[in-house]
């Protein structure tokens, strides 16, 4: 069967109208021609159907060759008015798309590797569903020829087709998939994000119209099979299906994709992912509007929202409690454009995601609910999860067990109506949120530092002079204790040349702080917990600690309990935002009071080369959590200065310079008349032996300025412990039997006997041995404000002069 297609195409192009032939020029096997086979339509403005069963009524390429037509006449739809065409599939269009992607880069949502892999697979799924005519147009547009078009009509698997497109476009798989998606009107943003509704663009549908589910039931994402577990249908207020949230999972990872209703042929609309923008509506919006007095639960976590809604439907929660379980899809930015006018007149309870980030994220949602007329807004404080356990690293250590006990896992939920009742009962009014976060559950938030940006402290307070903490001046003849020098209020920089003994002295300091023993010149303080961030020593760390602990073996139980180690040799950048978040969470969870960073060059290389501000922003975040910071750093090439900008020293309160064997052996001392003088006998003998020899010079010391420019030399014999060689400050042996002893500490260990500040001494004197006091009791007795009382109690708790029992309003204190 054949028609005069050349004349038909010419006539259709000139008139802009479809052309149909009734007379058959040739007929084989007495097969009548179909209407489609007798029609040429060059005015089509609708994308051809993606029905798998539809095939081209004739071999287009065969007719092109037979009638010697240019490929453009058969493979491209020629519109009488190109401006009205929804999209075009031409080589020129492909070139424009590639140029645009080269200039702007991939969309932000494609930065997530899992989302990018899902989109690539979705492009393949949609391509295989195209009819043959559209496939040919795409193949020709990306640079294929007639043979390619014939081949790929019968071989349309993406794992084969996409590599071919990559070669044709000379671009990577993601860019190539984006080009194909653009030709099919498939946008990655529409897959994952919801947008504010534009009234003028709102389509009208009939609720009787048939809507086909055209979303994949399963999809391969990065060689892993993801199965669609849920499809949460969303209806408009006229009860017509509008969109859906599709939940895909491989058992460990989850993907939530948004499907929207698109218009098809012959009244058969379908739900497709990525073809159209999803509207930012609340789930169960139709129920919320139909029941104006119902209470509404808004789950911020979409995984929790979908699972909770399923359980609520099965358990008839609305019929039993009058509460509608809702939520929203579309990512973290959705609350900004979420249509919330539907909650006007409703009582709203927000179920946040666990942790600091989740709580900080509900502020905007609360504000917008109130602005849109919600009668009241409360927040449920305890975690609700769907499988797994919540991240509790941002909760106070004393609250973490309670948080886990209060966590609800929807996988094991039996009575959803009881959970709804508990949420409503235990939800916190918004006016109590700030105090609840600060005093009960969450640790104080520290702003995230981004490298290259200037920091800005916003959580400051204004206080009267009376409220300032009292500080007792330190007497010059009283030796400095370890925790006076290395305190959370100060940052200490210890720097020196390679092989000067920095790590050895850093490990000795960690051992002293965690066991409550002296450190070289500095007297002992009560033991504390410490984290050693090791980017230098590696597998030798434990043998070095065991060597330095010789003679102090009875302190091993304290060391085992108080010393934490993060082995980071080989790569860890503490200036990375995500790394900082994880690191601070682990420090908080471990309850450490001090951290040693060994060393700056390995763990924060940019801070030692250019701008140190981002590094110190990070340090200040740690200090705000009550953690002291000690940084080990390398000297420059000359050995006379440290690497990096000079503000490294100006931003530290303590600076200690170490010179090792290599520097000391080259040194020639001078007598008073300027003549060469040999090194002292003690130093000469130390240099003749094996093992590190270190001269420590205190270049800056805020707690004891009289120590500045003082020098001490120590040696570490092979397999031995540190020994004093010479210097202006010998190692003290003072002990104090009347200082507080921490539980588990061996008897007669040396501790700090520095006098208490007046406020601390006053509060301690008011407490009788064996009697307990509440905070309010102590405020009445001392006359202190609440804040001062809490600060003084905290300082006394840290040195174990006061003990604490209970929690919340039942907390009481007594003398240790």
Describe this structure in words.
This is Putative AAA ATPase. Residues 729-756 are annotated as: Disordered. With 816 residues, the chain is of the alpha/beta class. Among the domains are: 5-84, no CATH class; 293-445, 3-Layer(aba) Sandwich (Rossmann fold), CATH 3.40.50; 482-668 and 678-727, P-loop containing nucleotide triphosphate hydrolases (Rossmann fold, 3-Layer(aba) Sandwich), CATH 3.40.50.300; 758-815, Arc Repressor Mutant, subunit A (Orthogonal Bundle), CATH 1.10.10.10. 35% of the residues lie in helices and 18% in strands. The strands form eight sheets. It has a nine-stranded mixed beta sheet with strand order 20-19-21-22-18-23-26-27-28, with helices on both faces. The protein has a six-stranded mixed beta sheet with strand order 4-9-8-7-6-5, with helices on both faces. It has a five-stranded mixed beta sheet with strand order 12-11-13-14-17, sandwiched between helices.
Notable characteristics:
single chain, 816 residues, alpha/beta, Rossmann fold, 6-stranded mixed beta sheet, 31 helices, 30 strands, 18% strand, AAA+_ATPase, P-loop_NTPase, Putative AAA ATPase
CATH superfamily of the domain at 482-668 and 678-727: P-loop containing nucleotide triphosphate hydrolases
Number of strands: 30
CATH arch. level architecture of the domain at 482-668 and 678-727: 3-Layer(aba) Sandwich
Based on Cα principal axes, name the global outline.
flat
- How is the CATH topology of the domain at 482-668 and 678-727 named? Rossmann fold
Largest sheet: 9 strands, mixed
């Amino acid at each position: 069967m054949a028609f005069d297609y050349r004349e038909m195409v010419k006539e259709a192009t000139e008139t802009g109208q479809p052309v149909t032939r009734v007379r058959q020029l040739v007929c084989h096997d007495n097969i009548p021609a179909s209407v489609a086979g007798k029609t040429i339509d060059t005015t089509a403005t609708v994308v051809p159907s993606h029905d798998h069963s539809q095939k081209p009524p004739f071999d287009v390429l065969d007719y092109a060759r037979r009638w010697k037509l240019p490929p453009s006449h058969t493979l491209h739809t020629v519109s009488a008015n190109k401006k009205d065409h929804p999209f075009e599939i031409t080589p020129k269009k492909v070139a424009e798309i590639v140029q645009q992607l080269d200039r702007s880069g991939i969309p932000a949502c494609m930065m997530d590797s899992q989302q990018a892999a899902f989109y690539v697979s979705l492009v393949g799924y949609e391509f295989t569903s195209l009819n043959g005519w559209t496939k040919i147009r795409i193949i020709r547009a990306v640079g294929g020829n007639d043979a390619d078009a014939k081949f790929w009509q019968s071989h349309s698997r993406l794992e084969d087709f996409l590599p071919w497109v990559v070669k044709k476009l000379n671009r990577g798989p993601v860019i190539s998939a984006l080009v194909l998606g653009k030709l099919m009107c498939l946008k990655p943003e529409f897959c994952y994000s919801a947008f504010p509704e534009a009234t003028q663009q709102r389509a009208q549908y009939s609720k009787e119209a048939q809507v086909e589910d055209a979303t994949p039931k399963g999809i391969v994402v990065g060689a892993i099979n993801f199965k669609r577990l849920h499809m949460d249908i969303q209806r408009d207020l006229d009860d017509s299906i509008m969109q859906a949230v599709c939940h895909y999972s491989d058992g460990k990872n989850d993907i939530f994709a948004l499907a929207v209703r698109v218009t098809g042929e012959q009244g058969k609309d379908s739900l497709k992912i990525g073809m159209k923008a999803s509207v930012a509506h609340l789930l169960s919006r139709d129920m919320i509007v139909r029941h104006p007095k119902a209470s509404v639960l808004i789950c911020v976590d979409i995984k929790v929202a979908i699972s909770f809604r399923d359980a609520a439907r099965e358990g008839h929660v609305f019929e039993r409690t009058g509460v509608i379980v809702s939520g929203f899809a579309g990512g973290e930015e959705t609350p900004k454009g979420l249509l919330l006018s539907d909650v006007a007149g409703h009582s709203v309870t927000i179920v946040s995601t666990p942790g600091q980030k989740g709580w900080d994220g509900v502020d905007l949602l609360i504000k917008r609910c109130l602005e849109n007329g919600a009668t009241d807004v409360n927040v449920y404080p305890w975690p609700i999860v769907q499988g797994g356990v919540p991240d509790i690293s941002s909760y106070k250590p004393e609250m973490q067990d309670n948080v886990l006990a209060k966590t609800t896992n929807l996988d094991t939920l039996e009575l959803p109506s009881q959970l709804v009742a508990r949420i409503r009962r235990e939800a916190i009014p918004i006016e109590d949120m700030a105090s609840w976060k600060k005093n009960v559950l969450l640790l104080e938030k520290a702003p995230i530092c981004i490298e290259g940006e200037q920091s800005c402290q916003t959580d400051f307070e204004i206080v009267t002079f009376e409220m300032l903490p009292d500080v007792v001046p330190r007497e010059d003849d009283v030796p400095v204790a370890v925790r006076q020098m290395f305190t959370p209020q100060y940052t200490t920089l210890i720097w020196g040349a390679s092989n000067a003994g920095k790590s050895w002295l850093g490990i000795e300091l960690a051992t002293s702080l965690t066991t409550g023993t002296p450190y070289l010149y500095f007297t002992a303080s009560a033991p504390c917990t410490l984290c050693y961030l090791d980017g230098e020593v590696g597998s030798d760390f434990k043998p070095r600690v065991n060597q330095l602990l010789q003679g102090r073996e009875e302190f091993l139980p304290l060391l085992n309990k108080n010393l934490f180690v993060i082995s980071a040799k080989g790569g860890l950048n503490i200036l990375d935002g995500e790394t900082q978040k994880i690191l601070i969470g682990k420090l908080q969870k471990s309850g450490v009071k001090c951290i040693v960073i060994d060393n700056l060059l390995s763990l924060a290389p940019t801070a030692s080369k250019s701008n140190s501000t981002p590094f110190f922003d990070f340090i200040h975040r740690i200090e705000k959590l009550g953690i002291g910071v000690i940084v080990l750093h390398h000297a420059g090439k000359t050995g006379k200065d440290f690497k990096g900008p000079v503000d490294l020293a100006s931003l530290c309160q303590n600076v200690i310079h170490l010179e090792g064997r290599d520097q000391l052996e080259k040194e020639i001392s001078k007598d008073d008349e300027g003549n060469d003088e040999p090194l002292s006998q003690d130093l000469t003998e130390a240099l003749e032996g094996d093992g590190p020899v270190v001269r420590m010079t205190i270049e800056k010391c805020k707690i004891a300025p009289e120590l500045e420019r003082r020098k001490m030399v120590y040696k570490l014999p092979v397999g031995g412990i540190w020994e004093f060689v010479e210097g202006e400050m010998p190692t003290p042996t003072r002990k104090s039997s009347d200082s507080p002893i921490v539980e588990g500490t061996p008897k007669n260990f040396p501790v700090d006997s520095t006098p208490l500040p007046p406020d601390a001494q006053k509060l301690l004197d008011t407490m009788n041995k064996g009697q307990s006091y509440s905070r309010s009791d102590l405020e009445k007795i001392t006359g202190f404000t609440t804040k001062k009382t809490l600060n003084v109690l905290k300082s006394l708790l840290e040195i174990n002069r006061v003990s604490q029992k209970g929690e919340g309003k039942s907390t009481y204190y007594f003398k240790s």
